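WARN no homologs supplied; continuing
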Amino acid sequence: MTTVYDFKVKNDKGEEVSLEKYKGKVLLIVNTATKCGFTKQYDGLEELYKKYKDQGFEILDFPCNQFAGQAPGSIEEINNFCELNFGTTFDRFDKIYVNGENEDPLYTYLKDQISGKTSKKIRWNFTKFLINKDGLPVKRYDSMKKPVNIAKDIEELLDA
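OK structure emitted
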């Protein structure tokens, strides 16, 4: 059976890394953007991360410029923006595509496992996938779902 641990992605230094390094942890995988109406969700994501990281929770941030060019700039510029404006400390990866012919295989897998309400496509930035300790996607949240409203689901998986 395929899990998120079977995928390799590029980190924010351009190096290929296996997601197997997160084995046994609860993950929240998010496609993000720095110039989006939802960018302020970085605050909520960081709050979740600080609250649960010591219990085995990780956030994997994948900047995506696919929606109205809302993640412009290099990964270094995105890192600086997020650290300065939101104090983010969770793992950020290289920019990716989440839809279309150039979409990252990780996102093809995530969308195949859990479709959205009306479509398999990612509709916008800050779509979130919650992954259990076995590396399996269990929930998908659209951009409107605030990070604070995911806390209960994270707690349930951490306690499982």
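The helical segments are 41-52, 75-86, 105-113, 151-159.
OK
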